[in-house]
Design goal:
Blueprint (H helix, E strand, L loop, with lengths): L1 H22 L17 E4 L7 E2 L4 E7 L5 E10 H6 L3 H6 L8 E3 L3 E3 L12 E11 L8 E7 L5 E5 L2 E4 L2 E4 L2 E2 L11 E8 L12 E10 L12 E2 L15 E4 L5 E10 L9 E8 L2 H4 L5 E7 L27 H14 L7 E5 L1 E2 L2 E2 L4 H4 L2 E8 L8 E2 L2 E2 L1 H9 L3 E6 L9 E4 L7 H5 L3 E6 L10 E6 L7 E2 L2 H4 L6 E8 L6 E8 L12 E4 L4 E8 L11 E7 L5 E5 L8 H15 L3
Parallel strand pairs: 2-8, 12-18, 19-20, 19-23, 23-26, 26-36
Antiparallel strand pairs: 1-3, 3-6, 4-5, 4-7, 7-8, 9-13, 10-11, 13-16, 14-15, 14-17, 17-18, 21-22, 24-25, 27-28, 28-33, 29-30, 29-34, 31-32, 34-35, 35-36
Helix pairs in contact: 5-10
Length: 585
């Protein structure tokens, strides 16, 4: 009986347990009141600041949030006239109208852009409204500040390459390629803005609008009307305004170009546009090979033009310079050489860069449409120049840097006229010999009473080039000089003045004024010095002709002796081989 009661009790308990599982348990009710979230509060930090501004002010504030933290701040600027129409600042702050774009920041200060007038005498009245938002997305009450702004437009300046001509600055002619290379890095132009009326001291970074107009045929035709190229920044909302302060231009065609630059300040007021001018030369072989001539003979020869037969030479008893009546013969000789190599009168031009004793500058306009410059420097006493107002080496450097080719055929083209060992400088006058012709040093006979004229020809260092001998009839053209000595014969009474004329002995088996050189190692030796006194000479078998190639850029060659004094048949082979090398690309 008792056992049956126990079984019945267990069954009832199991049924009750199952019923509880099926129906679940009711939640217990909360006791007390739910906590209300508190919005943040915000306050101005700089309540003493001057409300009048000549630039966008940096405003500061602080906030509190007793039950959380402030995540960000939002501000908006509204003109005073609008605030007045809406019932005043307090009314606007209490019930801010919709449709305004608030600016969000995450710091407790920010530079706030204010409205400004284009009228430099007008202060524009306005209000800045500010609110905070916390981590519960609750907003503080809106606070506000009355400010005003006056503005003066900034000033823009353009810095383009210029050169001083007397008392005036002129655009310095610039080479231009379609792409930068290892030796040409573009045309650098910079621009500078100032807003010194509104901002004292260090000037801010301005936004810039940069355009380039052109090409124009001359400076008189330059204008800022019509098509133009412009800089842009695709990462900015207004891509035509950029923050860059300079640019290296490329891909400009031959002609004059106007660089138009204007900046705008933090009130978006633009400056009056500034203009700079570029005089650009693009090598014709880049875009117009049909307009390119093969060769320009750059004549740097100095010819002696004495007034009488008894004019002395600064070199003492020595070979003299060629007389001026040989100039046509020299010109015809080199024309004959290139003609034998297949280049007729239509393929070359001739330009003179000496006028009497004066060296003339080499203009870019002579070089840009010629693929090879052959520099003729036959004289003994005048090297290539690079002084102010008569730049020659600098002009040739720049030509090479855009892919030009130069062959110098001359004597003492890089000498300082003191003779002896001369190390080539890395900058300044004659530095082109180091940087572009691979010359480490030259060795030149020192001026003396007797110049032994020991160059008898050249020994080939390449199988395709023949050994060279002098043409003694042309070397003899140097031997014209006569000196007159004056003495007194005291054996007579009265004493008599005696004039004695001496004509120097002729030099025809050896040529004077021929240097030898040492290379830096980036070139090839073509010829070596062959001396009349091979057993004792310190010049014998040293390089006298080399060539250098910078792949993808320029080619150069320097012959320390004029081909004019070499046998014509041999000089023709040299010219044919050299032109084939220069034009093989």
């Amino acid at each position: 009986m008792n056992r049956n009661k126990l079984v019945l009790t267990a069954l009832v308990a199991a049924m009750l347990l199952n019923l509880m599982i099926l129906t679940g348990c009711n939640e217990l009710p909360y006791k007390g009141q739910e906590i209300t979230k508190t919005p943040p509060s915000i306050f101005w930090s700089d309540i003493q600041r001057d409300p009048r501004n000549s630039r966008n002010p940096t405003l500061s504030w602080y906030s509190t949030d007793p039950d959380g933290k402030v995540l960000d701040y939002q501000f908006v600027v509204v003109l005073d006239s609008v605030v007045t129409r809406l019932g005043g600042a307090a009314a606007v702050a209490a019930n801010f109208p919709s449709g305004y774009q608030w600016t969000t920041v995450h710091e407790d200060s920010a530079t706030v852009p204010l409205y400004a007038s284009s009228d430099e005498s007008v202060y524009v009245e306005q209000y800045v409204f500010l609110q905070a938002m916390d981590d519960d997305s609750l907003y503080s009450d809106i606070i506000y500040k009355s400010l005003s702004r006056i503005n003066h437009p900034p000033t823009a300046y353009v810095d383009v390459p210029t050169v001083i001509d007397g008392t005036r600055r002129w655009p310095d002619p610039q080479w231009c390629l379609d792409e930068t290379t290892a030796t040409w890095k573009g045309i650098r132009v910079a621009w500078v803005g100032k807003d010194s009326i509104d901002i004292t001291g260090l000037q801010p970074d301005f936004e810039w609008q940069i355009r380039v107009y052109g090409p124009f045929p001359d400076s008189v035709s330059c204008d800022t009307v019509g098509p133009y190229m412009f800089l842009y920044d695709p990462t900015r909302s207004d891509s035509s305004w950029v923050m860059t302060k300079e640019y290296k231009f490329r891909n400009l065609e031959t002609g004059w170009h106007v660089v138009y630059a204007r900046c705008r300040d933090d009130a978006y007021v633009p400056s009056v546009p500034a203009r700079g001018y570029l005089n650009v030369f693009e090598p014709t072989w880049v875009r117009h090979p049909e307009l390119t001539k093969s060769i320009l003979f750059a004549n740097h020869n100095y010819y002696a033009a004495p007034a009488g037969p008894y004019v002395d030479s600064i070199w003492g008893i020595t070979q003299s310079e060629l007389r001026n009546y040989y100039s046509d013969e020299v010109r015809n000789f080199y024309a004959q050489l290139v003609d034998s190599a297949g280049y007729g009168p239509a393929d070359y031009d001739w330009a003179d860069y000496t006028l009497g004793n004066t060296e003339l500058p080499v203009p870019m306009s002579d070089l840009y449409d010629h693929r090879l410059i052959i520099i003729l420097d036959t004289d003994y006493s005048k090297a290539l120049e690079d002084d102010v107002g008569r730049y020659q080496e600098t002009a040739y450097k720049k030509y090479l840097d855009v892919g030009g080719k130069i062959w110098i055929i001359g004597r003492r083209s890089f000498d300082n006229l003191q003779g002896g060992e001369q190390n080539m400088p890395t900058n300044g006058k004659h530095s082109i010999a180091f940087t572009h012709f691979d010359l480490s040093a030259i060795y030149s006979p020192r001026p003396s009473l007797v110049d032994y004229a020991e160059f008898a020809g050249a020994i080939s260092a390449m199988p395709e080039f023949p050994n060279l001998q002098l043409d003694t009839t042309r070397v003899a053209q140097l031997n014209w000089q006569t000196r007159q000595f004056v003495s007194l014969d005291t054996s007579h009474t009265p004493w008599e003045t005696v004039f004695t004329n001496y004509r120097y002995h002729t030099f025809s088996h050896g040529l004077g004024g021929v240097d030898f050189l040492t290379r830096l190692g980036n070139s090839e030796t073509i010829y070596k010095f062959n001396s009349l006194y091979a057993d004792t000479s310190r010049y014998h078998y040293f390089p006298v002709a080399i060539r250098k190639e910078v792949e993808g850029s320029y080619k150069t060659s320097y012959f320390c002796f004029p081909l004019y004094f070499i046998r014509t048949d041999q000089a023709a082979v040299v010219t044919r081989n050299m032109l084939a090398w220069f034009f093989e690309d």
